[in-house]
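Project standup — Tuesday

K.O.: blocked on the structure for the chain from last sprint. Re-posting the sequence here as requested.
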Amino acid sequence: LARPRRAARPCGAMVRRHSKNAGTMGSEGFTYEERRSLGYGTMRERLGRDSLREFDACALELDTAVDPVVTPEGVIYSREAILRALLEQKKAAARAKEQYEASAREEE
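H.V.: unblocked you, prediction finished:
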């Protein structure tokens, strides 16, 4: 039995590889000229010193960490800043609960 022949590709046609995420990134259909006109991969920018945190800076206060605590991921926090942030979150949750209860009482 003879297999049916596949249609020949026109001369110069590119064969594109398929991927599991084909079509999700948005750049699969761009030609070289389109990518170049959009500036894809050509923009370079140096980050200034003021945009980078100091090595020993607390991630919450952005100041030198006092009594530093380090997470397993390597993020440095000041112990006092952690406690302050937790207290603020607790107070905000209490305020939200009071507002919810007040609105529930008004509806009754």
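K.O.: great, moving the ticket to review. Helices lie at 32-38, 79-107. The chain has two helices and two strands.
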